[in-house]
Amino acid sequence: MQSSGSANVAAVWNAGIGLEYNPWSWLGLDVEANYFVEDLGLRGFWRLAESDRRGVAFAARVSFRWGGPPRVSGPEGSIESTSPEFYEPASSTPRSSEPVGDVAMLRERVAETALAAMGEPYRWGGTSTDEGFDCSGLVWYAYDTHGVSVPRISRDQARTGSPLPANASALEPGDILLFAESGSRVTHVGLYVGNARFIHSTNSGGVKVSRLSGSGDANDRWWFARWIGARRVLEGE
């Protein structure tokens, strides 16, 4: 590679490592260290002369981001999709021959189906135990197994059914929980399973159960701080 920085430098080779930290989605802080060689005679990395320059360079950078996925105005404000752009029509009408029976029992079955997927890997766009799940794919799968149609993507799940406050005492198994990184945009969904617990699929741990607690472990507190509400798909007693 011909260097444009100096007429005396024939080529530059470098290798480095860096670390980036994002305290917020719009701010990035990173540091980088590079080992470099400036070949003054184009001899090749393995045949350096004493006159060639080499050393370590350090750099630090602050970056700002703006823009992002399309936003749709809804009851929760601007709602962001974190799943592929395909979905089933929103409806709480059973689509299979399975008898609905008691609504409370159906809610429990939906929650149990999601719990049976515990430990499955995270996969963006995944909707089955064969391939894994993303967050909204797990919710869709739990309902679809029992013949109940819900939207496929999180931004539409955040507007299906009826709204509920971010209050664990108001929840029933099967309610869809909404989470936002910042502001009011929904970036993650989960499924309430009872006893202040919810199941969800995360890219850091696959399908797992977390608690709605502001005093639990660090992971539980992180999600609890971002919980903004819920939606109820199955109405009735």
Structure description:
By secondary structure, the chain is of the alpha+beta class. It is built from four helices and 13 strands. It has two domains: 11-64, no CATH class; 71-232, endopeptidase domain like (from Nostoc punctiforme) (endopeptidase fold (from Nostoc punctiforme)), CATH 3.90.1720. It is 14% helix and 35% strand. The strands form four sheets. Strands 8-13-9-10-11-12 form a six-stranded antiparallel β-sheet, with helices on both faces. Strands 1-2-3 form a three-stranded antiparallel β-sheet, with no helix packed on it. α1 (103-115) packs across α2 (135-144). It is elongated, with a radius of gyration of 25 Å.
Give a short synopsis of this structure.
This protein is of the alpha+beta class. Helix content is 14%, strand content 35%.
Alpha-beta content class: alpha+beta
Report the uncertain regions: 1-7, 67-100
Number of helical segments with 4 or more residues: 4
| CATH topology annotation of the largest domain | endopeptidase fold (from Nostoc punctiforme)
Quick tags:
237 residues; alpha+beta; endopeptidase fold (from Nostoc punctiforme); 2 domains; six-stranded antiparallel β-sheet; three-stranded antiparallel β-sheet; 35% strand; elongated
Give the SSE map.
Elements lengths: L10 E14 L2 E13 L13 E12 L6 E4 L2 E4 L22 H13 L11 E2 L3 E2 L1 H10 L9 H4 L4 E3 L11 E4 L8 E7 L2 E6 L3 E6 L6 H7 L2 E6 L5
Antiparallel strand pairs: 1-2, 2-3, 4-5, 6-7, 8-13, 9-10, 9-13, 10-11, 11-12
Helix pairs in contact: 1-2
